[in-house]
Q: What sequence folds into this?
């Protein structure tokens, strides 16, 4: 522990000094990321109740944190992008003028760390020696944030050394404040590479390396520098011939990214030698390499995953990494002090996430957005390539959402421009990862609605701009694991069986699998997928692979209304592409009527 700055970087020291003058902490602690530092912080958090130790026999090194019950998710209505021109933030973001936002935040931060310790966390998003990585420094008064950042990022001395070498970094200032929702804001200043977050201790609001830096600020840097910062998992699929192909997939929060990233192949596939390798479960930074392909890194070093629903069936890899050295937030606890959440198993917990005796009549034991934080290295399927500074070459990009109707199991975009339209038009039912109503269908372009740090119209143009070198780019697909039948139940088993769909995609990339051309994209027939060992109902076979032309006409009209919200800034090529799909649907209808 050190209160003296270990850095010779004037810009960093000046910023830390100015924050200290504003927030007036009792102590300043520069984090070195060491095990000793982590142990000391955890001991202090155990002493003051911030952390509770879990069963040391079944879960060594595991802790429970109970957040304030009103501080359990991201707060999109309190999250702002503060650009000089309102139009640069776009209709997809809440906007505030930078001067007004700074004044508001600085008033909240004034004196807020009195009597507290101010932690300075130098961190690197991505492998420490990768040219694709980017660094930042988070200042916070929360030791819980420090402990989580140590898992989620490469934090401490090595990151500081890189920051000193590069001379620049993203500045993130955070205080839990009073945890008063009336005094809670998450502000981004992309033009200054700065974040100010006050009044929440929740992951996405407080671990500033994650959503705030690696998506909102990084998306702006990426546009400027010719790369992509995306809300995507990265998974490697090894075929029986020993070749591994990588897929990047964008799904909205709490739609199964972690499960897909850690998928266990179905038995028949395992026997043939298929393997799955996890590179990342939430964020993907991709850049064209010298060969024109897109190369991707996972900027994170850990998983901040949704606990409820995680089980031996849904994600055995996740369970295997959660029995040691993990932080659980807002889960229930069993009689023998083990963490528990809905969907885990048949045991009945004794305590709920608020620390009250568990009573099913009063709600779930774990909050629906309860989380685990764990090092990526603990994942049994962690890819040996995840630390490769060059990143992994991406063969396919997948967009997907929760759609009970219309959207088939999978389809392929005809080319890059069509793929960008498919991503831009994506929609999904909302989940508990953000406050607000759950289960409402909303457009969530590229699963980036809450995370793009600039105007979506410019973001779509940026995506389209990659099309110039189209021959080496990944193919783009859309999936929907959540289609429901007439009885309201899911038609597709999901989880490990999703590999059947991924295999079809990779075969399409190699020209080795069939598909039928429709106005909406290229659809497989049931026989184009390996469905051996799977029992699908007749309804499932019908609906999962069908193109409902009338339904798609309405969907394309609705996408048109959504895109029109972006006004004249929307790239003409995107609207032209939509028109092309509409015309193709109409031409087919006319042919059928003739
Ligand atoms: C997350 C989210 O925490 O998307 O990953 O909310
Ligand atoms: Mn996410």
A:
């Amino acid at each position: 522990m050190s209160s003296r700055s270990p850095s010779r970087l004037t810009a960093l020291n000046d910023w830390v000094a100015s924050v200290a003058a504003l927030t007036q902490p009792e102590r300043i602690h520069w984090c070195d990321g060491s095990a000793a530092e982590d142990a000391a912080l955890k001991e202090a958090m155990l002493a003051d109740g911030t952390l509770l130790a879990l069963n040391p026999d079944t879960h060594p090194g595991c802790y429970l944190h109970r957040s304030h019950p009103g501080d359990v998710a991201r707060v999109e209505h309190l999250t702002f992008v503060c650009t000089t021109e309102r139009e640069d933030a776009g209709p997809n973001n809440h906007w505030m003028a930078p001067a007004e936002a700074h004044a508001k935040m600085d008033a909240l931060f004034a004196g807020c760390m009195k009597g507290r310790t101010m932690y300075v966390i130098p961190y690197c998003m991505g492998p420490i020696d990768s040219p694709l990585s980017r660094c930042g420094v988070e200042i916070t008064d929360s030791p819980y944030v420090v402990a989580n950042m140590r898992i989620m990022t490469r934090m401490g001395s090595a990151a500081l050394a890189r920051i000193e070498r590069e001379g620049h970094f993203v500045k993130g200032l955070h205080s839990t404040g009073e945890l008063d929702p009336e005094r809670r804001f998450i502000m981004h200043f992309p033009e200054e590479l700065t974040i100010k977050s006050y009044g929440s201790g929740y992951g996405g609001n407080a671990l500033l390396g994650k959503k705030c830096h690696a998506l909102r600020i990084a998306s702006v840097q990426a546009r400027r520098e010719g790369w992509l910062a995306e809300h995507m998992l990265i998974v490697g699929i090894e075929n029986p011939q020993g070749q591994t192909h990588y897929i990047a997939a964008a799904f909205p929060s709490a739609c199964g990214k972690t499960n897909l990233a850690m998928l266990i192949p179905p038995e028949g596939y395992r026997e043939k030698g298929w393997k799955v390798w996890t590179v990342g479960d939430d964020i993907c930074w991709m850049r064209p390499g010298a060969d024109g392909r897109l190369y991707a890194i996972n900027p994170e070093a850990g998983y901040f995953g949704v606990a409820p629903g995680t089980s031996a069936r849904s994600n055995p890899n996740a369970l295997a990494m959660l029995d040691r050295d993990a932080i659980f937030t807002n889960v229930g606890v069993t009689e023998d002090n083990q963490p528990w959440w809905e969907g885990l198993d048949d045991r009945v917990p004794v305590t709920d996430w608020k620390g009250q005796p568990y009573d099913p009549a009063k709600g779930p034991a774990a909050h629906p957005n309860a989380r685990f934080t764990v090092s990526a290295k603990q994942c049994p399927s962690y890819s040996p390539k995840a630390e490769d500074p060059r990143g992994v070459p991406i063969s396919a990009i997948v967009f997907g959402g929760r759609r009970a109707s219309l959207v088939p199991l999978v389809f392929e975009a005809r080319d890059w421009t069509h793929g960008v339209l498919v991503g831009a038009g994506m929609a999904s039912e909302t989940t508990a990862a953000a406050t607000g109503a759950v289960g409402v269908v909303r457009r969530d372009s590229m699963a980036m609605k809450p995370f793009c740090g600039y105007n979506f119209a410019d973001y779509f143009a940026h995506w389209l701009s990659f099309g110039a070198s189209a021959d080496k780019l990944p193919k783009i697909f859309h999936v929907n694991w959540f289609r429901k039948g007439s009885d309201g139940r899911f038609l597709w088993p999901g989880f490990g069986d999703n590999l059947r769909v991924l295999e079809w995609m990779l075969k399409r990339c190699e020209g080795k699998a069939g598909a039928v051309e429709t106005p909406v994209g290229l659809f497989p027939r049931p026989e184009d997928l390996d469905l051996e060992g799977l029992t699908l109902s007749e309804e499932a076979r019908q609906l999962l692979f069908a193109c409902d032309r009338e339904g798609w006409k309405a969907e394309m009209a609705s996408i048109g209304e959504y895109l029109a919200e972006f006004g004249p800034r929307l790239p003409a090529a995107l609207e032209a592409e939509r028109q092309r799909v509409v015309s193709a649907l109409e031409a087919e209808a006319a042919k059928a009527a003739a």
Q: What stands out?
A: Residues 231, 253, 282 surround manganese (II) ion (ligand 2) (CB under 6 Å).
